[in-house]
Specification:
Oligomer: single chain
Structural class: alpha+beta
Strand order of the largest sheet: 4-3-2-1-5
Largest sheet: 5 strands, antiparallel
Radius of gyration: 37 Å
Number of strands: 24
């Protein structure tokens, strides 16, 4: 029978019955688990207790006395006996040869055998010692509190495991001390896995950081990995930290289907940067029509197929200095990128233009076309050729038309960053401004405008892109200072199923359709156009908007990672080139500091110049205090 003041087990922890109310027992128990480590700490820090009402089935008495004396929890937990292990060993030696103990031995019998002076005060101490001994095992028999006697083989195996665990514990404790001092050994990398997982955004916290007394801060974890040599400072964590794959999609596309296509005579030109590997558009003028040919992966990527879902999850191809992680499988380029196979298959926009460059009519065809890939530089060298000259003239008229409709033209410096995969050596070069790049841009804008008009006229649910008119300040300064202020006045674009003006580019109705190999929203637009042409069911507005929203969310993540990655490698470049200096252009005054743009690395800096400056004045700056983990750098004026 359980009486008042009885020492009991509650959830295998010690408790004291402080009172009895009818069929309920009021117990006092420790608020923290009484592990060996916690018991060792007890006394220096004290403990807190809790009170609980329980039934008799929830507790087991370990009191020897029928009229228990009153003990508090502190009295019970503080009991110690340096000889307890040898006493338990002696008890085991007596019992191990006794066949009568095969079914176990009562705790009370065993306790008296271990300590002939066993009383209630020692009850918990002896129980806990037996529970943690190698010689005895708590029985699973719920009818009585008993312990089973382990064999010598079982004891040896248990001790072996405990020694290994103790060795591992000592190893980890030594590692934690080295980690605190940031002086790790090469073999310590095996302990840092959870820190790496945390720094890569795979987990919400790191036990190792906690054990070492470091804060659960992802940037500090990144710095710690660099400081301890686990990571090289060139390691780019941002794609994985944002949950993006650094590998291209795996599932390959089928070869383009054999279907009726319009054979477009002549040659179209895919004009791009010399480092481009995925040409997805080509342009030509046949004397009457402007042709904009676009890669045609929608010929095999069906809506809601596994490839379509993967592309939706990715949102866009991720372009970082290390390379491209493609929205569609790498091997699809051979069949679908324009100019890589002869002939190329495309979804083509045939545009008839007014004298002022406005679109008179747009039609969409499945086509077979001959494409020649050339660089911007090569195009400019051939700008007066019969094939390319009309394209330059069309582009000029379209720029004039858009400007007349309020288009905002922004020209900020851009750079191209490359990383040697072996040496991690970073190169940064400014992107050269080619007139042919303007030509390609205008042709793509015309294709997007034409596609929007075609979809609207045929009542096709379509992803229309719009942008509110910016509030550009009056008396805008010239040069980079003016460009900087203009950018700050622009609104974000919107994507919806209702056409609206895109004020930024000066177009009344617009959609993006020219990059289905690398933008999911463009791929969906192509799926809708193809379904219409083939007479198949189209996605309804709600379904299409849901899918575009999902793809857009992923594409925004791609853009953020691209910016983070570009900044990462720019800082690596500055660390690799400690003597670097660059020209900085004064673009804005903010309080007592000036805002500067550094064109050679496409970065922004704030600093106090050594003398008063006018907008667009230039100074020379040098980088210092570079922190890869926080992506921070201080630029100082070189005097």
């Amino acid at each position: 029978m359980i009486r008042k003041n009885s020492i009991v087990l509650y959830k295998n922890q010690v408790a004291v019955v402080s009172d009895i109310e009818a069929d309920k027992y009021i117990i006092q128990f420790c608020s923290f688990p009484l592990t060996q480590d916690n018991i060792a700490k007890f006394g220096s820090k004290g403990f807190s207790s809790s009170e609980q009402k329980v039934r008799d089935k929830d507790i087991i008495s370990i009191s020897k006395s029928e009229n228990p004396a009153k003990y508090n929890l502190g009295d019970l937990i503080k009991v110690s006996d340096a000889d307890i292990d040898s006493k338990i060993k002696e008890a085991w030696e007596l019992l191990s040869s006794d066949e009568g103990t095969a079914q176990g031995i009562s705790f009370f019998e065993l306790a008296e055998l271990v300590d002939s002076e066993y009383d209630d005060k020692k009850a918990w101490f002896i129980y806990n010692a037996l529970l943690n001994s190698a010689e005895f095992l708590l029985s699973e028999d719920k009818s009585e509190l008993k312990f089973n006697v382990r064999s010598q083989e079982e004891i040896d195996e248990l001790n072996k495991k405990r020694n290994e665990k103790q060795h591992e514990k000592e190893q980890r404790e030594n590692f934690i001390q080295r980690l605190k001092a940031k002086k790790l050994l090469p073999e310590d990398s095996i302990f840092m896995g959870d820190v790496e997982a945390f720094a890569l955004g795979k987990t919400d916290k790191s036990k190792t950081l906690s054990d070492a007394g470091f804060s659960q801060d992802i940037e500090k974890a990144h710095k710690l990995l660099i400081d301890t040599g686990i990571w090289d400072y060139t390691r780019n964590p941002y794609p994985l930290r944002w949950g993006l794959s650094i590998q291209s999609a795996k599932e390959g596309l089928k070869a383009p289907p054999q279907e009726e296509r319009l054979k477009v005579p002549g040659t179209a030109y895919a004009i791009d940067n010399k480092w481009s590997k995925d040409p997805d558009d080509a342009i030509a003028f046949d004397g009457k029509y402007l042709w904009v040919h676009i890669a045609d992966p929608a010929s095999t990527v069906m809506p809601d197929s596994s490839i379509d879902k993967t592309a939706r999850d990715r949102g866009a191809t991720l372009y970082i200095p290390e390379g491209a992680s493609r929205m569609l499988a790498e091997d699809c380029l051979e069949d679908y990128a324009l100019g890589l196979r002869k002939p190329s298959f495309a979804l083509s926009f045939r545009l008839e233009l007014e004298e002022n460059g406005a679109i008179k009519e747009c039609k969409v065809f499945k086509t077979e076309v001959t494409v020649e890939c050339i660089t911007y530089e090569e195009a400019d060298q051939r700008k007066d050729s019969p094939e390319l000259k009309p394209l330059y003239e069309i582009a000029k008229r379209n720029i004039e038309r858009r400007n007349a409709q309020g288009a905002v033209n922004i020209n900020l410096p851009e750079v191209h960053i490359t990383v040697d995969p072996e040496t991690k050596k970073v190169s940064i070069c400014n992107i050269t401004e080619y007139e042919s790049a303007d030509v390609v841009r205008e042709m793509m804008l015309l294709a997007g405008e034409g596609a929007a008009h075609f979809a609207f006229a045929n009542n096709i649910a379509f992803p229309y892109v719009s942008q509110e008119a910016p509030e550009i300040p009056q008396n805008l300064p010239d040069g980079l200072a003016g460009e900087f202020k203009t950018v700050k006045s622009m609104h974000k674009r919107s994507v919806g199923v209702t056409p609206s003006a895109h004020a930024g580019i000066g177009i009344g109705m617009y959609s993006q359709v020219t990059s289905p190999l690398r933008r999911y929203s463009d791929l969906i637009a192509h799926q809708q156009l193809r379904a219409f042409i083939d007479g198949r069911p189209l996605l309804d507005k709600n379904t299409m908007l849901e899918r575009i929203s999902a793809g857009d969310e992923a594409a925004i993540a791609c853009k953020k990672v691209e910016r983070k990655s570009n900044m990462h490698w720019t800082l690596v470049y500055l660390l690799q080139n400690p003597d670097w200096t660059g020209e900085a252009v004064y673009v804005e005054q903010k309080g007592n500091v000036g805002v500067f743009l550094i064109p050679s690395i496409a970065q922004q800096a704030t600093l106090v110049p050594s003398k008063p400056l006018n907008l667009n004045d230039k100074i020379t700056v040098k980088a210092s205090n570079i922190d890869i983990s926080t992506q921070s750098v201080i630029f100082n004026e070189v005097l």
